[in-house]
Model the fold of this input.
Amino acid sequence: MPELPEVETSRRGIDPHICGRTITRSIVRQSRLRWPVSAQITALLPGQTVLSTRRRGKYILIETTAGHIIIHLGMSGSVRILPIGMAPAKHDHVDIEFGHGQMLRYTDPRRFGCILWSGDAIDEHPLLASLGPEPLADEFDTDYLFRRSRGRRVPVKSFIMDSHVVVGVGNIYANEALFMAGIRPLAEAGSVSRARMARLVACIRQVIAHAITVGGTTLRDFVGSDGKPGYFKQSLLVYGRGGEACKQCGGTLQEVRLSGRSTVFCKRCQR
Done:
């Protein structure tokens, strides 16, 4: 699944090609995604100008003069800038065409993503209103995470993957940040000391920022908006390495399932 760095990489990839551009036509070939594609995508978009793009959690938000397009890439989706007229493939479900001869194409083989419309205050949309802070935002700090964790008996890995606590810390980056912080994923969130929570905040910010810089993680179903995969996978310390040697101490990395997700850690380095 594309995680926050992959989504941010995609947003940055499409931004210079669509900002300030006028939409001339929208084509919806398949409307049955996770939720039906909003009818306004074809009815309202033609003639509107794109004002800006930003990301909230794993949602790409495209602001136009009439409202916002909300895009989620689901399990395997992608957005790309292509020349108008390029023949669609089987899973190319939506095209948004612009007057300068280019289009934004949304592709989603598994159809778990969405393309929705909001004409209201975007931060009050039901999908966005209850989200926690961004991991790179100032409000995501030690005081915040320590306070939210008190009394919580859930595993700390599940805690930091809760989008109501902090957005965008998906499975890959939770594994990596916890290893860097020296915290065992199964430890109860409420048992983590303030000092160790400070280290975890710093490591989450570090791993997310680095992944964005190098273009996200290379996954089987995801490539960036330019068609090139990210390269963060080359620097993974624990994720996907269960049974291999720990790069820090040489011990064998352990792998367990936590809430159905692969969880890899080092018994020596994480406590």
Observations:
- The longest strand covers residues 50-56.
- Residues 142-265 form a domain with the Helicase, Ruva Protein; domain 3 fold (CATH 1.10.8.50).
- The mean pLDDT is 93.
- The CA atoms of residues 78 and 107 lie 5 Å apart.
